Amino acid sequence: ETGVTQSPTHLIKTRGQQVTLRCSSQSGHNTVSWYQQALGQGPQFIFQYYREEENGRGNFPPRFSGLQFPNYSSELNVNALELDDSALYLCASSSTDSLPDEQYFGPGTRLTVT
Amino acid sequence: LAKTTQPISMDSYEGQEVNITCSHNNIATNDYITWYQQFPSQGPRFIIQGYKTKVTNEVASLFIPADRKSSTLSLPRVSLSDTAVYYCLIFSGGYNKLIFGAGTRLAVHP
After folding, report:
1. What would the mean pLDDT of A48-55 be, rounded to a whole number?
2. B50 and chain A in contact, CB less than 8 A
3. Which residues in A21-47 are b (16+ Cβ under 10 Å) and which e?
4. Which one in A2, A4, A106, B21 has a CA-CA gap of 20 to 30 Å to A95?
5. What is the reported pLDDT for B95?
């Protein structure tokens, strides 16, 4: 069974640029959630996708957007990058067949905005 | 939404039992208590979930008193590899949004 994978591992961008982060969910999982984790803090929920539609959103501006594909993989897009967007971005997958709060996290993408 | 309070940090030694207590005074009737573990440079990992009394799995035990206003994660005989951040979460159902606090940084010493 393949776990959650994310790419790239690290990324450096300049303020104002756009970035796309990718996530492959665990086999058999149909739901993908994205979280932002600043240094020394717990992860903060960005949004969730289920069956290719956004299924809930946290307190993040519209410049954070996402997609889920038919194979349940997902992308997180961030436009007009700001310095405060520097963080670890985590993708988590889950299944409607398992415990609702049991999510499987990937290793994350470390984004640095300069 | 129920707010959780847990110690910022704890220290222990190899072989000891570690108990991390989380307070959640305004937990709702349908809420579950969930704990996650996060190692440096990794995503969080689900440890255990419970509703009341005691739950045990191969990794930990979770003790929940009758009033459910607190819960205690118990790690038996910790090793250096248990050094991590431990998050207590209250899950209110609906879509699978997890709300993390700052967590408890556990340091296990030789």
Report:
1. 91
2. no
3. bbbbbbeebbbbbbbbbeeeebbbbbb
4. B21
5. 62
| Portion 25-84 of A in contact with B at CB < 8 A | 31, 33, 35, 40-45, 48, 50, 55-56, 58
pLDDT at B65: 96
Looking at the complex, does the CB of residue B8 fall below 8 Å from at least one CB of chain A? Answer: no
Of A81, A84, A113, nearest to A16 by C-alpha is A81
Nearest CB to B49 within list A101, A104, A107: A101
B89 inside 8 A of chain A by CB: yes
Task: Answer whether B20's CB lies under 8 Å from B9's CB.
Answer: no
Phi and psi of A83, rounded to 5°?
Answer: -60, -35
Comparing CB atoms, the residue among B34, B41, B43 nearest residue A105 is B43
Token pair listed for A102 = 């049991």
pLDDT for A7? 97
Nearest to B101 by CA among A40, A104, A98, A83: A40
Nearest residue in chain B measured CA to CA from A89: B43
- Does B43 contact A101 at a Cβ distance shorter than 8 Å? no
Nearest to A67, CA basis, from A46, A52, A82: A52
| pLDDT tens, residue order, chain B (110 aa) | 678 999 999 999 999 999 999 999 889 888 899 999 999 889 999 999 999 999 999 999 999 999 999 999 999 999 999 999 999 998 876 666 788 888 999 999 99
